[in-house]
Amino acid sequence: MRDCLFCKIAKGEIPSEKVYEDDKVYAFYDINPEAPTHFLVIPKEHIESANDLNDNNIDIVSHIFKVINKLVVELKIADAGYRIINNCGEDGGQTVKHLHFHVIGGRSLKWPPG
């Protein structure tokens, strides 16, 4: 999508602090972190939200979780714990219309989140 913020970040058109990149996904640190470790993982293909997952693109979710598993180990938050968040739609708190997963850790996280 031409005007999508996350598409532009994944293409390098908008600067970000990259955590990881491969041919399918891009991971970068959140500009307003909610915890000592807070990064996002996005598919490079534009998928607006979890509502737009289907038989043709659902495999990206397993790849994203595989990447998250690798990164939480590398960033040393796997053992203590972390949270993976996907906001879907306006009431779900989705502010960027591009499928993304927040990964936050490095401190004790409370529930409910808000």
From TrEMBL:
A motif (Histidine triad motif) lies at residues 98-102. SUPFAM superfamilies: HIT-like. The lineage of its organism: Bacteria, Bacillati, Bacillota, Clostridia, Eubacteriales. InterPro entries: Histidine_triad_CS (IPR019808), Histidine_triad_HIT (IPR001310), HIT-like (IPR011146), HIT-like_sf (IPR036265). It comes from the Bacteria. This is Histidine triad nucleotide-binding protein. Pfam families: DcpS_C. Gene3D superfamilies: HIT-like (3.30.428.10). Residues 5-114 form the HIT domain.
